[in-house]
Structure to design on (296 residues):
């Protein structure tokens, strides 16, 4: 096996992507396939087939959940067919190699901290704003996972300081009410717009079409939610990922608001778009086996 070749796999709700990086981050292989819906066995077989096609190398996988330190089984996955299964062990058996597996938001944060928007920063908080809302923390180039493997899971904290516009508290797939994910995911943005206007459109179209009131509500909620994160971990950089990271106005408007909620006279934290776009998570999965020397 060539340790210089690092295979990364990003297991998403709608697609599975694999790539191979060399030791400097150069791309040697890339392929995307549709993700099987609702079938654990089909998902396992699809990931194993992609790894085999990618060839020799170390294998890192980002999943939309976490591996429980207590049981070794998948937990907290919004792809619920993975929950309760020994996905890491089953994949290792299927491909005959050791696998490093981590939450996809952690992989995104690692990618952007290694050679992306947060390269050289001491503390990077990576945010996923897509079908779900996730987060990951990287400190001096190392992912912070935590004793419960939930570090960075800001999406399932309550939305801070609910206003009348936020009530009644919205139900989340995790069966709690008022989660950040229930307000800031892509589908939640579309639902918020529909509730306010009766118009049903895709979340990425809301900003593009200039729906100011809907976007102002979203930006204020995002500022509240990130303000709490900044108060807790005080990152140098917050990097946005997921489909809503393409909304350019967020990078100007949210930092103008979040100072109201941050316990500091000056906020030096930067809000940045990802350097590697929607490929960042799969790069981070590859870097679970170690990245190039840090810059800065």
């Amino acid at each position: 096996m060539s340790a210089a070749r690092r295979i990364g796999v990003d297991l998403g709700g709608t697609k599975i992507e694999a790539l191979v990086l060399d030791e400097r981050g150069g791309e040697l292989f890339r392929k995307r396939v549709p993700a099987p819906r609702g079938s654990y066995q089909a998902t396992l077989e699809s990931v194993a087939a992609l790894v085999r096609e990618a060839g020799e190398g170390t294998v890192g996988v980002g999943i939309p959940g976490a591996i429980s330190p207590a049981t070794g089984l998948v937990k907290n996955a919004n792809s619920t067919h993975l929950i309760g299964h020994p996905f890491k062990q089953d994949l290792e058996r299927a491909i005959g190699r050791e696998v490093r597996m981590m939450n996809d938001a952690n992989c995104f944060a690692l990618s952007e901290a290694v050679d992306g928007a947060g390269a050289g920063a001491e503390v990077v908080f990576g945010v996923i704003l897509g079908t779900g809302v996730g987060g990951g923390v990287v400190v001096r180039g190392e992912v912070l996972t935590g004793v419960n493997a939930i570090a960075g899971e800001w999406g399932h904290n309550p939305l801070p300081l609910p206003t009348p516009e936020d009530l009644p508290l919205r139900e989340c797939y995790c069966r709690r009410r008022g989660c950040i994910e229930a307000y800031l995911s892509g589908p939640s943005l579309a639902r918020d717009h529909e509730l306010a206007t009766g118009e049903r459109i895709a979340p990425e179209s809301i900003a593009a079409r200039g729906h100011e009131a809907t976007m102002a509500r979203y930006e204020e909620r995002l500022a509240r939610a990130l303000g709490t994160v900044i108060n807790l971990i005080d990152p140098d950089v917050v990097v946005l990922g997921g489909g809503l990271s393409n909304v350019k106005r967020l990078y100007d408007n949210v930092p103008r608001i979040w100072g109201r909620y941050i316990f500091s006279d000056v906020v030096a934290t930067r809000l940045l778009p990802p350097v590697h776009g929607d490929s960042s998570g799969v790069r981070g999965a590859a870097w679970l086996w170690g990245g190039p020397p840090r810059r800065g």
About this structure: The CA atoms of residues 61 and 295 lie 24 Å apart. The first strand starts at residue 6 and ends at 11.
